[in-house]
Amino acid sequence: MAEGRRGPRVDRPRATAYDVLKAVRVDGAYANLVLPQLVARDRLAGRDAAFATELASGTIRRQGTYDAIIDACLDKPRLEAKVRDALRLGVHQLLAMRVPDHAAISTTVDLVRARIGPGPAGLVNAVLRKVAAHDLDAWVRRVAPDPSADPVGHAVVAHSHPRWVVEALAEALDAPGELDALLAADNDAPRVTLVARPGLATVDELVAAGGVARRDSRFAVDLPGGDPAGIPAVAEGRAGVQDAGSQQVALAMADAPLDGRDALWLDLCAGPGGKSALLAALAAERGAALLANERQVHRASLVDRGTRAARAGLVGVVAGDGTRPPWRPGTFDRVLVDAPCSGLGALRRRPEARWRREPGDLEALVPLQRALLGSALASVRPGGVVVYATCSPVVAETRDVVADALAARDDVRLEDQWQLWPHRDGTDAMYAATLRRQ
């Protein structure tokens, strides 16, 4: 696109990526949601869409590392936020993408002139030329603390995670030697994984559309490339985009052994609806039915839209407070409580989350998680099962919440709990615990 008849020409994918960073910083947008909107607005497709996606998402993931490098190249580290956004985009092209140095520098300078003004253009040009003098590994050695003296500080810079996040993940990880691998995996773009909703689509259908079947969920197919919306099963709601770890959580609830009645299921925190759609399809096959509950009205509407193809297995979608449910105790045979959490297990997919979350957020989240699990246990019948899940591995949100529930009740038994990891399993770091009410 051109900024005025005489202004500098701005490369469209780079301009789109810049607008994504601005929306995330100024409007509090989520990159994975605003990216498709801006890509469509700017009519990007194919390589241009892929370039803009990697440039925006990769820059947000690695901005901690890039800020340390940028600051090392400045006499005065204070910069306008919009100039820093442009510099981060340029650094990502230089150090993490196959973009020639001259192209990365010149297009970033043009972007600055068009979107910010001519004033900062010389500074941006000078900083990026300094950055181009070394590769990423060399820069990390220059700007990160000595790993032998401050291993956490080194990881903070080398892998672009806030210190408290590094410490929380290290506490949760059962193999300390894998911490670097975990943090590195958080900076990899996630695979696009599809779910073939049973009775509506098949894995073979998705494989025929270009997917590759996975082994960790019997309904999961990785899509190596292309637009998922272009696959008929996805466009029709018979299949969907869903991480394999998320699928495993839903299956843990649906597949748990059960004696007696198995007619009514509950998804207590259903938004945005991926697990509900899978569970409703499974319920329909078994002659059961699912009630999807979501506190936020706009998210409940997302659940309603996302489960239309699986209506045969759905009682309905309600917008209600899961901690104060309107149904009677012991109503359900199976309950899933996918609790609101810090989201630190999905940092590949939500790149801005690591920069928005703070340790104090747990002070509000953990009591809510405890209340929701308590409500789920009250909602299930004796002999029924509850699966408590989070897309966070943080101990305070996972094992500690379950331990508190077990300590508070003598009619609940823990049957299983597990933790997935992106560097081991190629999924989000999902946690799940299966509890049975006795």
Characterise the protein shown here.
Strand 5, helix 15 and strand 6 (289-293) form a beta-alpha-beta unit. The chain is an alpha/beta fold and 438 residues long. It is built from 20 helices and 11 strands. The chain has a 7-stranded mixed beta sheet, with helices on both faces. It has a 4-stranded antiparallel beta sheet with strand order 2-3-1-4. Residues 1-6 have low confidence and may be disordered. The protein is 48% helix and 14% strand. Helix 1 (12-26) runs parallel beside helix 3 (46-61) and helix 4 (63-72) packs across helix 5. The termini are far apart. The protein folds into 4 domains: 12-137, NusB-like (N-utilizing Substance Protein B Homolog, Chain A, Orthogonal Bundle), CATH 1.10.940.10; 144-186, no CATH class; 190-241, no CATH class; 242-437, Rossmann fold, CATH 3.40.50.150. The chain has helices at 12-26, 31-41, 46-61, 63-72, 81-96, 101-115, 121-131, 136-143, 151-159, 163-172, 179-186, 203-208, 232-235, 244-255, 274-286, 297-306, 353-356, 361-379, 399-408, 422-425; strands at residues 192-196, 212-213, 220-223, 239-241, 264-267, 289-293, 314-318, 332-338, 380-390, 412-419, 431-437. The longest helix is centred in the C-terminal third of the chain and has 19 residues, at 361-379. S-adenosyl-L-methionine binds at residues 269-275, 294, 321, 338. It comes from Nocardioides gansuensis. The active site is at residue 391. Belongs to the class I-like SAM-binding methyltransferase superfamily. RsmB/NOP family. Residues 165-438 form the SAM-dependent MTase RsmB/NOP-type domain.
